[in-house]
Amino acid sequence: xxxxxxxxxxxxxxxxxxxxxxxxxxxxxxxxxxxxxxxxxxxxxxxxxxxxxxxxxxxxxxxxxxxxxxxxxxxxxxxxxxxxxxxxxxxxxxxxxxxxxxxxxxxxxxxxxxxxxxxxxxxxxxxxxxxxxxxxxxxx
Length: 140
Known about the structure:
- The chain contains 4 helices and 7 strands; from the N terminus they run E-H-H-E-E-E-E-E-E-H-H.
- By secondary structure, it is of the alpha+beta class.
- The longest helix is centred in the N-terminal third of the chain and has 17 residues, at 24-40.
- It is elongated and about 45 Å long.
C-alpha cells in the first residue's frame, strides 16, 4: 500500500483556548495530505480543474485520539482506501512526530463537471490516474 506523508508545523492560530489543535483544522490538513498524495503520484488537482472537473467531498469521518499542541509537528499520512467507478475513499492518520496517533480519518469524494456538478466516472476523465488509484488501493 502506498502511503504519502506531509509534515505540518502546528501554528498558534490552529489552536483553541485549551492550547490544542482546533478540530476543524484536521480537515484542512487532510486536504494537504490528499494534495501531497496526488503530487507524489505525479498528478495535479489543477490538471483536473483545467479539464473542467472538480472533486467535492461527500463525507468526512474523523476520530480524535490524542491532542496535538502549538509548536509540535504533525505528520499527515494519506492513502487510497478504495477506488470505485464514481467514488474515491482516502484514508488518513495524523500522527505526532514520535509516531503516536493523534487522529484517524476517511474522506469520500466524487468527480463532477464543474459547470453543472453532475457526477462523472473518474475512469472516463483520466484512466491513468484512476488505474493508479485502483492499483494502490487498500481495498481491491
